[in-house]
């Protein structure tokens, strides 16, 4: 049990804390595609559409987001179980 607890301690120098992260798929000219990915590890991101790239939403806070939209709970669970969950938003818009 002690090893498990030690493994959960964050802030070890040189290591990034595991947490749920949100990425938007960005197209040329600042346009976001309609795809949003939730992952623990960026290596699990799916391939981006042609001429697009995944950009992390650095302001994303999983707990705050799920309180505002309880439907995200199922998305979060899928991301935790499968490594990645991609959802499609209603419309793409420029930043």
Any overview of this molecule?
The chain is built from three helices and four strands, in the order H-E-E-E-H-H-E. By secondary structure, the chain is an alpha+beta fold. The chain is globular. Residues 1-14 have low confidence and may be disordered. The chain has a four-stranded antiparallel sheet with strand order 3-1-2-4. It has one domain. It starts with a helix and ends in a 7-residue tail after the last strand.
Sum this structure up briefly.
The chain is α+β, with helices and mostly antiparallel strands and 95 residues long. It is 25% helix and 24% strand. The protein has helices at 2-7, 62-68, 72-82, and strands at residues 21-26, 32-39, 53-56, 84-88.
Structural class: alpha+beta
User: What's the number of structural domains?
Assistant: 1
The rounded distance between the terminal residues' Cα atoms is 47 Å
Sheet with the most strands: spatial strand order? 3-1-2-4
Tell me the fraction of residues in β-strands, as a range.
Answer: 15-25%
Give me the number of helical elements.
Answer: 3
Element string (H = helix, E = strand): HEEEHHE
Please give the radius of gyration in angstroms.
Answer: 15 Å
The overall strand count is 4
Percent helix = 25-40%
Ranges where pLDDT stays below 50 over 5 or more residues in a row are 1-14
User: Which overall shape is indicated by the principal axes computed on the Cα atoms?
Assistant: globular
Biggest sheet descriptor: 4 strands, antiparallel
Mean pLDDT: 81
């Amino acid at each position: 049990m002690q090893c498990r607890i030690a493994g959960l301690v964050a802030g070890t120098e040189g290591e990034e804390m595991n947490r749920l992260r949100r990425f938007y798929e960005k197209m040329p000219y600042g346009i976001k595609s309609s795809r949003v990915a939730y992952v623990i590890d960026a290596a699990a991101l799916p391939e981006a559409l042609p001429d697009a790239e995944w950009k992390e939403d650095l302001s994303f806070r999983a707990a705050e987001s799920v309180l505002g939209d309880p439907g995200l709970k199922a998305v979060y669970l899928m991301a935790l179980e499968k490594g990645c969950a991609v959802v499609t938003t209603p419309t793409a818009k420029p930043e």
